[in-house]
Specification:
Length: 95
């Protein structure tokens, strides 16, 4: 496994990174918070502030939903097999 990691580092292949665009660009796996949820929360914060709420009084909210994207092309190129249980959990599988 160490030799494979060294090869990946040498080739500049990204294995796991946030943002769905990285898997679509050739990364193996990307995972992160659901961005549309962030946009809705941001709009709610802006609305509260415009209605007079003090930003310091607003609670900090953390994401509750996350996305998982897998790139099977990259996995195949690396000789990796992604378990079915992981494939079933993915929001998008790039073939």
């Amino acid at each position: 496994m160490t030799a494979r990691r060294g090869l990946l580092r040498l080739l500049g292949v990204t294995l796991l990174i946030g943002g769905h665009w990285s898997a679509r660009a050739g990364g193996l796996i990307s995972s992160g918070p659901l961005l549309t949820e962030h946009y809705v929360l941001a709009a709610a914060y802006v609305d509260k502030i415009l209605r007079g709420a003090k930003p310091a009084d607003l609670p900090v909210e953390e994401p509750t939903r996350f996305e998982l994207f897998l790139n099977l092309k990259t996995a195949q190129a690396l000789g990796l097999t992604i378990p079915l249980s992981v494939l079933l959990r993915a929001d998008e599988v790039i073939r």
